[in-house]
Amino acid sequence: MRTQSIFFALAAAPAALAHTAFTNLFVDGLDTGDGVAMRMRMDPETATFPIGGDKLGSNDLACNVGGDKGVSRVQSVRDGATLSFQFRSWPNDASRGSMDPGHKGPCAVYLKKVDSAINDPGHGDGWFKVFHAGYDGASGQWCSDKLIANNGYLSIVLPKGLQGGYYLARPELLALHNANTGDPQFYTSCAQIFLQSDGDLVPESTVSIPGYVQLSDENMTFDIYNRPNSEYKLPGPPVAKLTSAAGVNGAFVNRQTSQTEGQRPAGCICENGNWCGKEVPDYNSESSCWASAENCWKQADDCWNSAGPTGNAGCQLWQSKCEGLQAECRAGRFNGPPNKGRDLTPPKKTIDVGLVLGNEGGGVVAAPNTAAAPAPKPSGDVNQQQPASTPASTPAAAPTLDFNENVGGYESPTADAPKQTSVDKNPSYEQGPAPTEDAGPAPTQGPPCRPGHPCVTVTHTVVKTEVVYVTAYAQQRRAAGFHHRRR
């Protein structure tokens, strides 16, 4: 077959294929922010690495490496919301695509009801599937193909009437390009959410992750090159059947009616992932001016130290603020801070989520005589494109921060081009190809790159350059503190 010959060409260089990472959650088309409320692998060098065949029994399969520890933010989600899970081959740059098209395979979305989205380790029992899709024989596409064509967004509609409270939401991509050699590759992470719902629907049964798939399963070793792809059977449990919590073991009756953890901290005026910067103390003397500048730099240290693979644009914004405060102190303007309380966080963007996928074989099934209606199903063919609903209104833009206003000092950089004054002006994340696995074999020379499909090679220089980037900032910060002490 012509298609298979293309697959063989791609399979000739498996180590050269670009990987991917789940980086952003969109709720009804509104971005929650890069890495916000996300449990993901934090090491930039390995952030896009899969959970491979030898790790299917590891707890990492639940929420990725390090995913047993929660983050400080929890995203609020309405009942029946459209959730869009964004995958990127470069975690800090969506413009570089979502995943190499050679990564063929199914998709799924799992939820786990938890008492605390921050403190639950994630792995273990309690997971239930709300969506899955595999190979579409009519179009000759895998779910992964549709995700790539949809700009990296895996969009689904949550079943309406689920019990309210805290959940971990886990999208899953399974790449089968190396499954015939014993290396199925899972790409996954977890978003921490709070579901605002008066419903009482819960799954009739749950599964454990890890444990829901085994390396010996036929769908883990399926040869997509030499078998009809339409024969592929989806891994894991079926899409969950939902029922009223009143008829289920009391372990499921843990509905929370109001969110008490993970909100944006009061006084937060700058975000970078799950880090928040707060306004510095007021000052009216030289010593208190320098103390406030020092407070700003301390928060900057925390920002840079916590920055994950989705980048450090917020840290750059905050650094500009610190540089401006320092300039005020040097200039003898000891009454501030200027523009007190202005929010530096760029406004969240709203997108058209594009294709909203439906389950193969139907939607989530609710048992009869429950208090909530069953989940909505896409009309017609489950693979047919469904128009995404656009939010009724776009959130108002955050106030424009103008540090030239009555301060004689500094100005805020834009979100697209953050100001850099003393750090490396060629940050590593803006250069070079995407990272690949250290342990992978040397890439075999494949066919010439086709237009729109970039060649990807091993790039350990990415992380080394990023370290220099942070170090340059740290040196600048220390120099600033030394100057203060000399005064």
Number of strands: 19
The CATH class of the largest domain: Mainly Beta
Report the β-strand fraction as a percent range: 15-25%
Compute the number of helices: 6
The CATH architecture of the largest domain can be given as Distorted Sandwich
* Net shape: globular
CA-CA gap between termini: 76 Å
Structural class: alpha+beta
Q: Biggest sheet, open or closed, and with what strands and sense?
A: 8 strands, mixed
CATH topology heading of the largest domain: Coagulation Factor XIII, Chain A, domain 1
pLDDT average, as an integer? 78
Q: How many discrete structural domains? A: 2
Radius of gyration: 24 Å
Helix content: 10-25%
Poorly predicted runs are 1-16, 365-487
**What is the string of helix and strand elements?**
HEEEHEEEEEEHEEEEEEEEEHHEH
Structural description of this entry:
The chain is of the alpha+beta class. It starts with a helix and ends with a helix. Strands 3, 4, 6, 7, 11, 12, 13 and 15 form an 8-stranded mixed sheet that branches. A 4-stranded antiparallel sheet has the order 2-1-5-10, with no helix packed on it. Strands 14-16-19 form a 3-stranded mixed sheet, with no helix packed on it. The protein is built from 6 helices and 19 strands. The chain has 2 domains: about 1-260 and about 350-365, Distorted Sandwich (Coagulation Factor XIII, Chain A, domain 1), CATH 2.70.50.70; about 270-340 and about 400-435 and about 455-485, no CATH class. α4 packs antiparallel against α5 and α4 packs antiparallel against α6.
